[in-house]
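Two entries, shown back to back:
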Amino acid sequence: MNAVMIHCSCVSFDGHAAVFLAMDEGGKTTAARLCDNGTVVADDQTLFKKDDKDRWLAYGTPWTTFTPHPAPTLPRAFFLLEKADSFSLKPLASRELLASLWNEHSTLSFILPGCKREAMFDIYRNLATSVPAYLMKFPKDYIDQEAILKCLNQ
């Protein structure tokens, strides 16, 4: 197993992706729409798959309100979203990203047989340790794209 669908939005900035994670109604689509200089890959479900160079790539799916982005993009940062009165970013440990991924998708993992559940966990762990993560607090009408781009280029 080298691919997984994740409940998130994804925006590409010249081939480098910002991935926005939140529960339902948590701001994933809003964050994607506020990225004026990026191309929305997906606003609710994103496919992550390893390529032949062992790199993670993010793909759009047909289940989006936007036209799916035709080309894969490299995930460069995960942003766990939290609604707030002002914008801020705080680095997160990989274990915090892993916990968020696992908790968000736990209902799916319980229907999988044990070996597939372990493979799914391994994919989340690999993603969480391969890509930096940040807690992003933001109001419904503003994100700091320059701060996001800085995270993508580190």
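entry 2 starts here
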Amino acid sequence: MYQRILTGAVLLGCAVTDLKCRKIYKAAAAGYLALAVLGQLARRTATVAQMAFGLLPGIFCLVVSWLSGQGLGYGDSVLVLGCGLSLGFWPCMETLFFAFFLSGLWAVILLVLRKAGRKKEIPFVPFLLAGALIQWAGGV
């Protein structure tokens, strides 16, 4: 429960700054990652292997960030690292699935309505927050 509250609070705060400033503060992302590690160590429910496995979605996002020239920002990727560590591999994967689906749907809507072009940047953290909320509600 602690991890969900932490994740929700951090994603909500970062979603607001991502919408307003198109920026993820490194200190917030790094602090979330540190608190996720401390939370897992304090609870002692996850093994080191499970924690490492939980990092895989975030590592994948970091690689995508690097390969795409930050098409997906590094801050977003560090938040995904924290989600994977905090929530676990499969909940993080479900959250990412919903986040990518919703952001893609939003991009299509913007294109169809001619409100944006193909190169328009959209903030990702609000979709990550929405994905987490959907995943916590039981998914689809």
